[in-house]
Write a structure and sequence with these properties.
The structure is a homodimer. Chain A is about 70% helix and about 0% strand. With about 220 residues, chain A is an all-alpha fold. Chain A folds into 2 domains: about 1-55, Orthogonal Bundle (Arc Repressor Mutant, subunit A), CATH 1.10.10.60; about 75-219, Orthogonal Bundle (Tetracycline Repressor, domain 2). The longest helix of chain A is centred in the middle third of the chain and has 28 residues, at about 130-155. Chains A and B meet through helix 6, helix 7, helix 8, helix 9 and helix 10 of A and helix 6, helix 7, helix 8, helix 9 and helix 10 of B. The structure holds a DNA duplex (19 and 19 nucleotides).
Chain lengths: ~220, ~220
DNA sequence: ACCTGAACACCGTTCAAGT
DNA sequence: ACCTGAACACCGTTCAAGT
């Protein structure tokens, strides 16, 4: 008598996880996510996917969720923890640009709430007065997601290999110097800058603002 | 002999401007932008639009450009000017949520460069040391675009009339209090908050950070 | 319960043909 | 030079029919 494998163990059985994983692989591979292509890779018809996933929007959200993992927030100094947190998000989006676009678009996603929560706890640990906690955490989150969106768009629109600074510099060279004097001025500085370092400097700026406001409210 | 009107004066003549205007009207009306629907409204075939516009992406960019106007940056105190600038962008996106999504997605758009330039000039006027100018202007821009994207997504996904705070509060009530302690804590504060005020408070936070950093580098 | 795949109602874009 | 609209190559989603 043959013992039937439980469906969870059958290698060819479809599952939500298997679908999401395949979607992530497809998006990471640079292809557009399509139910037909996804179905073909999973060796089914497109209709089969709908048994496990409500629609494309939900699948995209689940894929982004899968890729921005809860890495344990490091203990210790809250300012250091916030920087680490921000860099983790930056690196995850750098590795999966499509997820960045997704986060910037669907702010009520569980992923975003999770990031917000982790930021907020460190803001509390920082000793920010209660009235300013929401504003402070929001500012950091918005900055992170803003950069995420930008970075994602840049990564997706530029041939891989070229650096963002090169593009910005090239673009700024063609600008009317009278109208875009500032942009042209700083474009030169871009050459030695690194997106990641730049991103972190912005986080530090916001942290400095939080510290300054805290100092004021205490006195 | 009949004098032929120049094509620019013919009422029914198609033009890039007329197409972009119709696209803006459609998007503001809450409909999805479609070449077929757009053509129908302009009483042509979809192919006609391609004579004036390269593709949908360009049309979307042009529509966003048309809606985020260069209102003259106010002279005077640079900190005040930056706040006004930020609020102008916020209000424009509040009025045209689809444009917010567009800006967050296509950072190399002329519109974004223009905003960046205007921010940068005020940062210079603020007396920020040269090395920090790019970082400071980027932080503000990223914050503004980040909020823009969030706000746009929220406005598009929520039934008009309901306030964002209500949604966030309702969502947070269903969260596991152990996992989302911070979010639940601040969700209560949301009731009396206003997105616009909240947005401005974040801008002030960054401005405070810039001021603090400047003070440090001087001493 | 889960899968299949044809069918429906759309898309953006192209292009021969017209004026 | 500019417009027309049929046609091409796709989409997401549904659903009767199968197992």
């Amino acid at each position: 008598m043959v013992i039937k494998a439980r469906s969870g163990e059958r290698e060819d059985a479809l599952s939500r996880k298997k679908i999401v994983d395949a979607a992530v692989a497809m998006l990471d591979g640079g292809s557009e996510l399509t139910f037909r292509a996804l179905a073909a890779q999973l060796r089914t018809g497109p209709g089969a996917i709908y048994w496990h996933v409500a629609n494309k929007s939900e699948l995209l959200a689940a894929a982004a969720d899968a890729v921005i993992e809860d890495t344990e927030s490091p203990a210790g100094e809250p300012e250091r923890a916030l920087r680490t947190l921000a860099l983790e998000v930056f690196d995850a989006i750098d590795a999966h640009p499509w997820a960045g676009a997704q986060l910037a678009r669907l702010p009520s996603q569980p992923t975003v709430l999770r990031i917000f929560e982790r930021i907020g706890r460190q803001v509390q640990a920082l000793g920010v007065p209660e009235t300013d906690q929401f504003t402070s955490a929001s500012a950091i989150l918005n900055y992170v997601l803003g950069v995420a969106g930008q970075h994602a768009a840049q990564r997706q629109s530029i041939e891989p290999g070229t650096r963002r600074s090169e593009v910005l510099e090239a673009a700024s060279t063609n600008l009317d110097p009278r109208v875009y004097s500032f942009t042209r001025d700083v474009a030169g500085q871009l050459r030695e800058h690194d997106d990641r370092v730049q991103f972190l400097a912005g986080v530090d700026l916001i942290l400095e603002g939080i510290a300054a406001k805290k100092a004021k409210s205490v006195s």
